[in-house]
Amino acid sequence: MPAISPARKAAFTILLAVERGPSHSDDLLRGKAVNALSAADRNLCTALVLGVLRWQIQLDHQLQVLLKRPNAKLDREVLIALRMGAFQLLHLDRIPARAAIDESVELAKQAGHRFASGMVNAVLRKLAAAPYFNFSETGAAELAMAQAHPAWMVERWAGFFSLEAARAICLHGQSQPALTVRLADPSTEAELAAAGVVLKPAELLTAARTVVAGDPAATAAFLEGRVRLQDEGSQLVAEIAGCLANGPGHKVESVLDACAAPGGKTLILAERNPQARILACESSEPRLEQLRKRLAAFSQIECRLADATALREDSAFDLALADVPCSGTGTLGRNPEIRHRLRPEDLARHAERQRAILAAALRAVRPGGRVVYSTCSLEPEENEHVVAAVLAENPSARVVPLEPGMDELASAAILTASGAGRLKSSITAEGYLRLLPGVFRTDGFFLAMIQRTA
After folding, report:
1. Is the dihedral of CA 44, 45, 51, 52 positive or negative?
2. Sign of the CA dihedral running 138, 139, 140, 141
3. Which residues are catalytic?
4. Annotation: CATH topology of 6-129
5. β partners of residue 305
6. What is the pLDDT of residues 287-345, one digit of tens each?
7. What is the pLDDT of residues 37-60, one digit of tens each?
8. 432 phi and psi angles, rounded to 5 deg
9. pTM, to two decimals
10. Domain 232-452 has CATH 3.40.50.2000
């Protein structure tokens, strides 16, 4: 009986959990089972899990062609064994074909599908003998298959932004996201360098760095909270809220973070407004407990179990950040399973809750106060349409255009000069900011600033 490597066994278990839902690959890859692996096995496990999820649509298409009954419904375990073998054959050049095939066959056997193992062996051997498929990218549907994204998503992006923008979004979704850290204290960079962590300046923010080599999570600075892993786009949302939302002559003494977990943006709000009382709300008890632990060092932050739509504090805050739950289509490189779970009809459900959260945040700020609304979605239903719907119901609210704020952030040395210029070109006609993956090396984000006028 061939042995299955610990990396492949762990990857198979994670992919099966994701297939069954609602587990997330990112959480599972940080679990105890993966942490117990050697560094080499952790790397292979991560590559297998994320690679299979990113390329799953195309892998399934290629495998179906090779089945005796192309439309046959396969058991989950068999399908995952096939996907893992196919991904290794097609995308991991350093793995011998024999190892990819034999261990995939053994995974199917050990999962209780001995009779299907012969089919797994035959299909993967056919694929190894003729691994090349030609995929055109001439139209949205062809691009979707070539880049293993749902056709309905790519067709929307091509319609909203252009086919070239859709291609850039897809390419970003098929690559490993940049690992970015936030340095609250620039002197920490030398400490990280001494620990073998090589950094380079990030794309937009002066406090952000991109990791070139090394593991910042293994350093004392990370364990003590002096350096944090956080996507640069996520940092930018909090910087805009923390530094621009006060407005001229408007001192921020109270802040609402309506959907605070996991707390990275809350920390930036606290760093930029050390004098302010901050209420950080979270509706999930487990996530609230994690939030409390992460924010424990900041005495001005109150963490509360609360649904943002049910807050009773009216006209109580100078600033509110409504970084709302969303479809996450701007994060497909980091969360590839989203593309397999999301359906077009889900967007209306997300939008209904998003409108309720934004309306509640507007009620919570005082006249003259500002709300920053943000998502990591690329979809207009969750972005422009939500803002437009809430503004239509609130005549005493107005959009604050974000383009002038880019110069303010550059003058305050929060944005780099080049970053400010590039961001200004991503301001929409309405004054909103849209970060498209592929245009920037960040997750995709949408951001709007709204002021309550009365």
Report:
1. positive
2. negative
3. 376
4. N-utilizing Substance Protein B Homolog; Chain A (1.10.940)
5. 282
6. 999 999 999 999 999 999 999 999 889 999 999 999 999 999 999 999 999 999 999 99
7. 999 999 999 999 999 999 999 999
8. -90, 160
9. 0.95
10. no
